[in-house]
Amino acid sequence: MPPPTGELATAQQAVTRADGADADQYAAPEIGAARSELGQAQAAMADGREDDARRLALAAAADADLAYAKSRDALVTAELNHRRSEVAELRQRLQTGDDR
Fold first, then answer.
1. How far apart are CA 100 and CA 96, in angstroms?
2. Buried b (16+ CB within 10 A) or exposed e, 1-37
3. Tens of pLDDT along 46-65?
């Protein structure tokens, strides 16, 4: 098998994408695990343990993808709640005739 350079690159990209989605705030355990696994994968690759590096890189990518999904879910849920609040406020204004 070829060295897992592609898997390492994919894992790094997944961690970067999760970081961009505020994973530290919304999915801290998952992004922490992904970073740890990525570091271990890089160390394994440097030591010539390619099978371990591949396995750890795949785990890192999976955990980073989970962190990204949880972060996006939290952000979308917050936006939905904000919009619902705005709708409720507008309905209240319509009922009371308040035209601020």
1. 11
2. eeebeebbebbbebbeebbebbbeebbeebbebbbeb
3. 999 999 999 999 999 999 99
| Tokens representing residue 58 in the block | 């795949």
Q: State the alpha helices, DSSP H only, in 1-100.
A: 5-20, 23-26, 28-46, 50-96
Residue-level pLDDT at 47:
97
Query: What would you report as the CA-atom Rg of the chain, rounded to the nearest whole angstrom?
Result: 21
Alpha carbon distance 42, 60 (integer Å) = 11
Mean per-residue pLDDT for 72-100? 91
Q: Which residues lie closer than 8 Å to 14 by C-beta, 6 or more apart?
A: 34, 60, 61, 64, 65, 68
Q: What is the DSSP secondary structure assignment for residue 4, as one 8-state letter?
A: T
